[in-house]
Specification:
- The chain is mainly alpha-helical and about 70 residues long.
- It has 4 helices and no strands.
- The protein is extended, with a radius of gyration of 16 Å.
Length: about 70
């Protein structure tokens, strides 16, 4: 694991969210613009999540499943 990955791994969840927010904001605006179809899909997914937030599979479980199938 790289030194940067080690440093990120040692951050608290709050610090990781702050870093993520900083990185997202640092991206060029044009590179982060969404198409109308992408925006519609994201709106749909957020609404679906808000209707049933308990119907979510944690990333760790999804990742483990993906790694098992390779």
């Amino acid at each position: 694991m790289s030194n940067l990955q080690n440093e990120i791994g040692s951050l608290s969840s709050a610090e990781k969210f702050e870093l993520l927010d900083f990185l997202w904001e640092s991206l060029d605006g044009e590179a982060t613009s969404l198409t109308e179809a992408q925006r519609t899909e994201l709106d749909y997914r957020v609404a679906r999540y808000e209707r049933n937030s308990s119907d979510v599979i944690p990333w760790e479980q999804v990742r483990a499943g993906l790694l098992r199938t390779q």
